[in-house]
Amino acid sequence: MEIKYFRLIKAIEEEGSIANSADKLFLTQSALSHQLRELEERLGFKVFHRKRNKWQLTEEGTELYRLGNSIFDSIEKGFRNIEKLRTGSVGTIKVSTECYSFYQGLSVFIQKMGLLYPDIAVDLILEATHQPISKILSNEIDIAVVTQKPVNEALLSTEVYEDEIFAVVHKENPLSKVEFVDANDFSDVHLIIHSFPIETVSVYDRFLKPYKITPLKISAIPLTEVALEMVDANMGIMCMPKWALAPFKLSDDLEFKRIGKNGLKRTHHLVFRKSDKDKKYINDFISNFEEEFSKK
Question: Which residue intervals define the domain HTH lysR-type in the entry (predicted)?
Answer without folding.
Answer: 1-58
